[in-house]
Amino acid sequence: MPGSVFTFYSYKGGVGRSFTLANIAVLLARWGHRVLCLDWDLEAPGLADYFRPRLPARPSGGVVDIVDDFRHGRFAPEAHVQRLTDVGVLDFIASGREDGGYVGQVQEIDWDELYDDGFGEYLEQCREQWAAHYDFVLIDSRTGISDIGGICTAHLPDHLVLLFTANRQSILGALEAARRADAARNLLPFDRARLTVLPVLSRFDNREEYDRSEAWRRIVVDETAELYRTWVDQTVEPATMARHLTLPYVSYWSFGEQLPVLSEQTPSADQIGFALETVAAVIACRLDRTDLLAENRDAYVAAVRASRQEFKHELRVSIPRAAFGPAGDLVEELKKLDVRVVKSLSGDRSLLARAEDDARHLCLIVDGKVSRWQSAEVELFLHRTLGQDRRVIPILTQGTEAAGLPGYVGNLRYLRLGARGPAGVARDLVAQLRGQSPLVDAVDVAEVLHQARGARLRPSRWDLVDELVEGLRAAIGAGDDLRTNDLATDLAVATRARPPNGAPRDTVPPATRRSIDWLLRLLDTRAKTTMQHRKDSE
């Protein structure tokens, strides 16, 4: 998939645009993405100051030198890139070199003349190269209405991150700039989708004058509601999304150029790192899956954070205290088979405080019943598993009946800790982990879901379909491929076209459609992940 270009724009200064871009760039890079940042605020550059402690040297070139390359018939945008240290793959193209000649370089640029001479096509080639080499290209644009702003908001981006503060000049000016960009985009000789806009209310202080802050929230939502319609899930209210896209004012971070995301490793809800993580997660998802964000923000961010995570452990074994002995023997046998395994004892509260898991799969030792702690552990694991190839694997002790267990465990493929002993169970478990096929046959299940989405059925049959779809959500989320295929087969039969018999037929109910759409997105994500794993292993 080619990378996505996001321009960060504000109509007025002082909204924290460069601060937001720099911190989000660091988050995306730390989460495993390849990121390129460009400082296109040529008349008031400042992005380098946020990155300076991690730059290998002072910038010796940048955007203005890309213009100079065009004038001299050179094409080498990579020559002006610097790699930051200790934050993953985060590259930076400054506005230009930091010397006395920079101002003159900027003043000599005539953008209209450049475009007349073919600079638009040249810049398009640069954009294609950036999109091919990076997952995300983040552009810091100049404020106000300008030729540079037009390049950054209309020509280059796939998405526009619109930052503003709680005053009408900032809001209405930003909205007008977005409308201008959308209109100018339609005139471009390049193939572009419609510009999607991510509105971000910045530097918002709701700790003082609460009533006034809530009144301004309503004003912001009323003014920006139209921007959400092109990308937010129809089940999510603009007011809900607007709260997730609000950056609080924290006076501590208003001094100097700072990167709080480096010091706030697991931020609480009242810290700015928490809000920055949310916006970064929306960008990482390319403005998709907003229904999941509205449902559970922490799970949404955790899933995005871990989507490219290299897990420290291959398996976490959840051990009830009653089965400590045989479970401990199982762990030792797994270690002999070179499985990176870690124990989890009931009541280990350190699990709840972690921002993300450190083990890919969860093995649940069940002795008689699933304890309340294990139920919470499974729920936490599944919440952190959105869109990822991870499994819950139950192992039942002798005498534990699967039929008496909750569906989210009893319906899974399980192993039995019995006559074969820990060594035999360890071998079976390794066979599942090392030789497993993809969690579901995404193509077949997706076809059945599409069939269901387009079916016309009697109302009573839609009730059955809804039950099957909800069963699929649980089975796919838990990684139970056998149960998934059984349910998909039943769903195919239930939604198969039948000859008309005079009874009224209805299209898919909205709630069922939303569940089907969620599953299709999840299957698509897993199919892409599996394909990428195969490419990486070749």
From TrEMBL:
Gene3D superfamilies: P-loop containing nucleotide triphosphate hydrolases
Domain called CobQ/CobB/MinD/ParA nucleotide binding: residue spans: 7-155
Domain CATRA-Associated Small Protein intervals: 444-516
Coiled-coil regions, chain positions: none
Transmembrane segments: none
InterPro entries, A to Z: CATASP, CobQ/CobB/MinD/ParA_Nub-bd_dom, DNA_Partitioning_ATPase, P-loop_NTPase
PANTHER family: P-LOOP CONTAINING NUCLEOSIDE TRIPHOSPHATE HYDROLASE, PARA FAMILY PROTEIN CT_582
Name by which UniProt lists this protein: CobQ/CobB/MinD/ParA nucleotide binding domain-containing protein
